[in-house]
Amino acid sequence: MNPEYPLYIVSKGRWESRLTSKALELMGVPYHIVIEDQEYDNYASVIDNKKILILDKKYQNDYDTFDKLGNTKSVGPGAARNFVWDHSIKNGFKYHWVMDDNIRCFLRYNNNLKVPVKDGTIFKAMEDFVDRYINISMAGPNYFMFTNRKAKNNPLILNTRIYSCNLIRNDTPYRWRGRYNEDTDLSLRMLKDGWCTVQFSTFLQMKMTTQHLKGGNTQEFYEKEGTYPKSEMQVKMHPDISKLVYRFGRIHHRVDYSPFKYNKLIKKKDIIISDKINNYGMILKKVENATR
Q: How many domains is the chain built from?
């Protein structure tokens, strides 16, 4: 299976690594990759140009960076994410996927095994779950490193931040904003308005950790200024539930998601959910070089 809704990768300076693109190519999943015009030749040399979308600079010029620095430095990936949001609406879709460009592979977590997947079935399964309810605004897979294989884990986590691989409902009244932490901010604005978010732990993404891959935000921000401005902006955006903390040798932000435990899923009236397991035809096979 493949996803029903369009899938976009937002990328900058990573035509050589292009981890997410390689992962989706290996899985046979169709996608578009959104880049800035000055990098077209580089990306077109390694990716089918039919998959490439050029970011309209209007989205960068109009983007709300949530600071007073304007275009003195990169506005971050939020402008391109707004571009794909509108692109999917213009093409008549109810939802869209938008992904970072540094995801090495996708996995299914089942029976305490984290197994790389070889096609797009997991995206269709997440779409089907989300489409059962009237009040899920955003969903996506959890990070590989946040799901402990030797512990009990719930198959999903409700009402938390959705990051790096986002399935977004198009008719919600939001757009991305902020030079940093745009994923946390969007999640929190949705949750504060009573929407639900769903983070799947039964499906995972193996994403490169912050500052470990050249290009993207690493090159634009973190190599030059560290993580303090990023965390400081988060606290300014949502001071009621955010605070600065020092962990792992650098400044981070901590967000309290407990106020949103009262946001409850509302199932569509005509939906009947079977009590039987649906594996969507997925089977466990031994495959050499599964993550290449």
A: 1
Task: Assess if residue 285 is contained within a domain.
Answer: no
Among left, alpha and beta (phi > 0; psi -120 to 50; other), residue 47 is beta
Does 283 reside within a domain? no
- Range of the structural domain that residue 63 is part of: 7-262
In this prediction the pTM is 0.91
Quick one: tokens of 57? 């600079």
Q: Three-state secondary structure along the chain?
A: CCCCCCEEEECCCCCCCCHHHHHHHHHCCCCEEEECHHHHHHHHCCCCHHHEEECCHHHHHCCCCCCCCCCCCCCCCHHHHHHHHHHHHHCCCCEEEEECCCEEEEEEEECCEEEECCCCHHHHHHHHHHCCECCEEEEEEEEHHHCCCCCCCCCEEECCCCCCEEEEECCCCCCCCCCCCHHHHHHHHHHHCCCEEEEEEEEEEEECCCCCCCCHHHHHHHHHHCCHHHHHHHHHHCCCCEEEEEECCEEEEEECCHHHHHCCCCECCCCCCCCCCCCCCCCCCCCCCCCC
Q: Quick one: tokens of 87?
A: 């692109």
**How far is 250 from 247, CA to CA, in rounded Å?**
6
What are 156's strand-pairing partners? 200
Give the model confidence (pLDDT) of 249-289 as tens digits. Answer: 788 899 999 999 999 999 999 999 999 999 999 999 887 76
| CATH code assigned at 207 | 3.90.550.10
Quote the CA–CA distance of 33 and 13 in Å, as a whole number: 12
Residue 107 forms part of a structural domain:
yes
For residue range 74-102, list pLDDT tens digits in order.
999 999 999 999 999 999 999 999 999 99
